[in-house]
Amino acid sequence: MEKYKPSNRFKLKDLITITITLLPAALIIALITNFITDLIGFSLIIIMPIAQVYLIIILINKVITNRPIRSPIIMGLIGLTIGLILYLTPHVILYEQIKTIIIDEAIIEYNLTNNNLSSDLMRDVVGQFIDFNAIDYFILRTEIGTSVGRVGRSNSNWGAFGFIITEIIDIVILILVPLLTLHGIAKKPFSEKKKQWHKNILPMLVKPDDLTQLSEELKNNPDTKKLKSTINKGVYLDKKEKSSVIQLMGIDDEYSLKINDDYYLLNKKEGQTIEKEITKEYKKIIKSTKEKQTN
Question: Which residue, 120, 164, 125, is CA-closest to 143?
Answer without folding.
Answer: 164
